[in-house]
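Could you help me review a protein record that somebody else here produced? My question to you is simply how this chain folds and whether the tokens agree. Thanks in advance; the entry in question is below:
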Amino acid sequence: MTWWSALLAGCWLAGVVASGGCASAAAQKEKLLKRAAFDLKCTKDELSVTKIDERTRGVRGCGRQATYLRSCSDPYGANCTWVMNSAGHDRGDDE
């Protein structure tokens, strides 16, 4: 199971999908890619996402990388956004 499908399954189990309290996994991924594309000065198609933990993702693309935290305004996962938790920086030769 991918982490995006796990997120969606968690929303369903929480019983808030039908009420709109939990954004879809696809919408969350799109939101992350849109923000990272702007921050890293890269197109969404050039980005790759790595799950670090349940609410942290690493994004790489165009020779840069950044770490993002998922931040929600309520405990059920509604009104979430991705916040950069590192200075977006050029990747070194240690890749």
